[in-house]
Amino acid sequence: MGRSSVLACPSTEEVRFETQDAGIFRIPDVKTRLEALQSYFFPRLERVVMLLLGRTREVYGIDPFGDTVLRRRPSHRKDAREVKDYAEVFVGVCGRKNEEGLAVVHPDGTPFRYPPCELLLVVEPAGALRVSFRPFVYHVDGVYRRRVIREMRLAWQGLAPALVQARIAPNYYDAKLLESLGEPWVTWDSPPLPFPFGSHGWMRELVLPFVALYPLLDCGLRLARGEPSRLGILVRRLKASVAQWAEEGVPPLTQPPEASEEEPDLPEMESYRFLRPRKWWQVLSRDRYTCRLCGRSAERHGVVLHVDHIVPRSKGGTDEMDNLRTLCMKCNLGRSNLEEVQSEG
């Protein structure tokens, strides 16, 4: 598969996020909110991360799946499911654990077991998604920090054009905090991508920043393991891909892409307009985030879920719980289309 396939998009259902998804962060009950994140939101976001890693492999000819593990906050581990609020929610990748310790140490001299860098999809509570690279998640020793910065400076001339095309910018922490930490803490972030969005057009807004930032993550992972950096090699491959995209007429990310004619203009679901968000999530929780018709779930299949009125409101149906059920987007739209045909007949 050629490098140009990095811009290919999967099916709309696999990566669609809707306006209603932002309502997760407004669920008043923290326990219900965490359940919605774990059972509905994160499984779909992890599918996006896996797709992005696949595009990364195509561009660089390396195996990012072997070097990284998924990371999410709140954690997916059962023993870490604390009922507390989180100011930041994300899914992404970090380096694999090394029980014997890495070639980077904490200020007290103890070695790290996880590399102190990560590449994330960060979700903003207002309902937006951005790609974020964090080179120093924790306090690190000066030797490791200087090596990482040196490698980045050497590769900067080749890396900068891709970062500019992807509209990635560094975000420095508060100056007083910087002074107290004694660290050049910085994140590299793409512009926020607001909900709703699907795979066509908007997916490119995630692919380019993720692929452009991956060489920096790879550099941090290898230096943490005591291995030589291959940042220069990856930057050259990235430059070749950027040049190829330019030849193919792929526009730089200077404005939101126009909607593709292939992407359906999905109708606003009736329950979006009439149901209170609290009841919406109560229905999904009751049905275990699983479609009541086909049995597919967000956790196992990554489907988008809707709340359906069994008896439509137009025919006297109510918003009581026994008249509401969870359907996947495909089943719900199929039911709506069938009802339209029957009404026309």
Task: Tell me the layout of helices and strands.
Blueprint: H1 12-15, H2 30-60, H3 64-67, E1 68-73, E2 89-95, E3 118-124, E4 128-134, H4 142-165, E5 169-172, H5 175-181, E6 186-189, E7 193-194, H6 204-224, H7 231-247, H8 270-274, H9 277-286, H10 298-301, E8 305-309, E9 324-328, H11 329-344
Antiparallel strand pairs: 1-2, 2-3, 3-4, 4-6, 4-7, 5-6, 8-9
Helix pairs in contact: 2-6, 4-6, 4-7, 6-7
> What is the CA-atom radius of gyration, in angstroms?
22 Å
Per DSSP E runs of 2 or more residues, the count of β-strands stands at 9
Which term fits the overall shape?
A: elongated
Strand content: 5-15%
Order of helices and strands: HHHEEEEHEHEEHHHHHEEH
Which residue ranges are poorly predicted, with pLDDT under 50 across at least 5 consecutive positions? 1-13, 174-183, 253-271, 340-345
Q: Give the distance, in angstroms, between the N- and C-terminal Cα atoms.
A: 47 Å
Average of per-residue pLDDT values = 78
Number of domain modules: 2
- Largest pleated sheet: 7 strands, antiparallel
What is the percent of helical residues? 40-55%
Note the total helix count. Answer: 11
Domain HNH nuclease: 278-333
Protein name: HNH endonuclease
Pfam family, one: HNH
GO molecular function, one term: zinc ion binding
Structure in words:
InterPro entries: HNH, HNH_nuc, NA-targeting_endonuclease. Pfam families: HNH. This is HNH endonuclease. The chain folds into two domains: 3-247, no CATH class; 270-344. Helices cover 41% and strands 14% of the residues. The protein has eleven helices and nine strands. The strands form two sheets. Strands 1, 2, 3, 4, 5, 6 and 7 form a seven-stranded antiparallel beta sheet that branches. A two-stranded antiparallel sheet has the order 8-9. Strand 3 (118-124) and strand 4 (128-134) form a beta hairpin. Helix 4 (142-165) packs antiparallel against helix 6 and helix 4 packs parallel to helix 7 (231-247). The termini are far apart. Mean pLDDT is 78; it is low at 1-13, 174-183, 253-271 and 340-345.
